[in-house]
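This section describes the prediction task in plain terms. A model, or a person checking by hand, is given the sequence of a single protein chain and must write out its three-dimensional structure as a string of tokens. No templates, partner chains or ligands are provided. The sample shown here is typical of the held-out split.
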Amino acid sequence: QVQLVESGGGLVQPGGSLRLSCAASEKFFSIATMAWYRQASGKQRELVAVITRTGGSSYYVDSVKGRFTISRDNAKNTLYLQMNSLKPEDTAVYYCNARDPSTNSPLLAWGQGTQVTVSS
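The expected answer:
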């Protein structure tokens, strides 16, 4: 079973940057569309960004466009999310998952996530 381990979160001031990583346990990663999601306290989990298996195409939710960049290294089975110009409303637990491109549904069990807190 593929396991996902997110890391890189922390406390950052508004306007700051963080780089999240997601390590996958198997080479399944290299053939999967991958995505970052986030869940703020008291809210439903939401999609943040998607990247195709080759990295040739990506999608971002409007609220992060121009600030976040999703990327991947298939040789390392690792997904990244570079987050710049962070805002307090970006505060959430961030998760990665594989994404079924036909149904847009997450494919794997959720990892533990990584907490991002944007506060002065």
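For orientation: Strands lie at 4-7, 10-12, 18-24, 34-39, 46-51, 58-60, 68-73, 78-83, 92-98, 114-118.
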